[in-house]
Amino acid sequence: MTVTRRFFTIGAAAGLVAGCRAGPGPVIASAASADPGLQVQPNPGYDAWVASFRGRAEAAGISRATLDAAFRGAGFLPGVVERDRNQTEFTRTTEDYLAIVASDEKVARGRAAFAQRRALLAEIEERLGVPAQIVAAIWGVESQFGTRRGDIPVISATSTLAYDGRRGSFFESQLLATLRILERGDTTPARLTGSWAGAMGHTQFIPTTYQSYAVDFRGDGKRDIWSDDPTDALASAAAYLARSGWTRARAWGLEVTVPQGFDAALAGRDKGRAVSEWAAMGVRPAAGGRLPDHGAASVLLPAGPGGPAFMVFSNFNTLLRYNNSENYALGVGHLSDRLAGGGPLRGRFPPDENGLTIEDRKEIQRRLTARGHDTGGADGVLGKKSEAAIRDWQAAQGMAVTGRPSREMLAQLGG
Fold first, then answer.
1. What is the pLDDT of residues 265-322, one digit of tens each?
2. Rounded distance, CA 284 to CA 196, Å?
3. What integer pLDDT is reported at residue 89 of this predicted model?
4. Is residue 392 included in any domain, yes or no?
5. Can you tell me whether residue 347 is helix, strand or coil?
6. What is the mean pLDDT of the chain?
7. What is the Cα–Cα distance from 375 to 389, expressed in whole angstroms?
């Protein structure tokens, strides 16, 4: 992950998964109101740290008036420390990741948001050179098209983590950047909210990235990424990509097919070559036609030669500046294609370690739901709710309780 833009890949992934089944509408997720650990609690050590920090902040140019306003009502949030210390190291398969970020529900909701903001996104594209559908896809992945922006006070979150000390210097720099946002007058302490780690707004910028890349697109004197109006936030995401090397009028990539017997050793972002060379090897667009030439290209095989294949260009690497994960960049790229009217992937991922395809897993979820179990939906991604439903069913059948599905289970659940 590029620290200048966001600090927690895992936190972002967790938020994305948690939000993948949210219904349409403008309601903002309210973690702070639901969790006592995200309410301010007394902590003398934190208070002493803040008193010391205020001197450092004033020396760095923050006015006493800004500090007074910022810390009025702010305080120690134990839930933030808990989340920071208990981030689970996990990775999702590319198949699961794409199923989450570009589910039929997400695409339908995203196309509606894209249509609503089409004129704005077109204007951003004209001025900054980043395609409207790419900016919209980042919006979708980062905040569910603005419905999950976070409501935790950023001053409390960053000061708590700076005081805690595990990443103290990093979070103190984020806290100082947050105070400079207030000093400049871009927003107020009450509106300065975000995730537990300080990522803010529609496009989840951390404070230092906001300082460097946020833009005042309408020239009203404020760079407002927190408002229900996403104008500045979407423009800021485009500005970030533009300044990170996005090349105007070039694609991120596309789904391709590789010929039988294709040497998988040729795949990888570090194995770039001319499009003409890939074409000579038999690489073809999955949708048909000829390969577009947007400069040197690489082929990615995230599930091996038997799964979907992608050809990616230099703009794919620019997406990695936003979040240094190939799954993330593929997710943004694929979702952007869907928002622009494209269809699902044509390639099929191979069965998982349980011998099940994503359609098999969806069917298990549907059949469990029909029997009164809460799987959280039928997207083929087996999260905590699906695993709990499987365990409950296995226990009721007198089977070994593993929480893992199987072909036997699919057959026993019936039609």
1. 999 999 999 999 999 999 999 999 999 999 999 999 999 999 999 999 999 999 999 9
2. 44
3. 52
4. yes
5. coil
6. 91
7. 6
d(C-alpha 347, C-alpha 287), whole Å: 10
Using 50, 70 and 90 to split pLDDT, how confident is the model at 13?
A: very low
Token pair for 246: 């996005």
CA atoms in the 13 A half-sphere facing the CB of 409: 31
In the predicted model, what is the mean pLDDT of residues 337-350? 97
Residue at 278 is within a domain: no
**Residue range of the domain that includes 378:** 358-413
Q: Are residues 238 and 370 in the same domain?
A: no
Please report which confidence band the pLDDT of residue 414 belongs to, taking 50, 70 and 90 as the band edges.
confident
Torsion of CA 32, 36, 38, 40, to 10 degrees: 120
Question: Does residue 152 contact residue 195 with C-beta atoms inside 8 Å?
Answer: yes
For position 35, what pLDDT does the model report? 87
pLDDT at 109: 97
CA dist., res. 40 & res. 145, Å (int) = 29
Structural domain includes residue 163: yes
Specify whether 198 is located in the same domain as 64. yes
DSSP 189: G
Q: What pTM value is reported for the model?
A: 0.89
| CATH number assigned to the domain comprising residue 231 | 1.10.8.350
Q: Identify whether the C-beta of residue 8 lies closer than 8 Å to the C-beta of residue 197.
A: yes
The pairing of beta strand 253-257 with beta strand 298-300: unpaired
